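Sequence and structure are no longer studied apart. As an example, we show below a sequence and the tokens encoding its fold:
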Amino acid sequence: MNPQGILLVEDNPQDELLTLRSLKRVNLANAVEVVRDGQDALDYLFHQGSYGAGPVLPLPAVVLLDLGLPRVGGLDVLKRIRADARTRHLPVVILTSSPEEQDRLRSYLGGANSFVRKPIDFTEFAETVARLGVYWMAVNQAPLQEAL
């Protein structure tokens, strides 16, 4: 089991709650840090702003990133993650309700590792998030951060 956590970047309280419940339901022991806008995601990842005063936190094992975020949009967060050597290889899964094919194309061109459309059905959404959590936290074998 990967000791690193998940960074959930989600501004919709219902989607946040359902995501957290879905991850807990599959017994992932990894911590989930939640931020509600793109700027807070960048602050968390780069140890700045409101996260700059505390201890440096390890990078998460994966970022679950919504696209339609306040302050800084998801695609801009992805661009910043890929532009920095410290986070360039950090897995980023776009988890969005956007039906736009351009968003999917821009996400992959920007370096997303996966693009998942949030299902409208709550049960299907919960199952999708549970599968994502199991894959990225228990199945995927990421390189050690020290090696990057």
Observations:
- The chain has a mean pLDDT of 85.
- The first helix runs from residue 13 to 25.
- The longest strand covers residues 92-96.
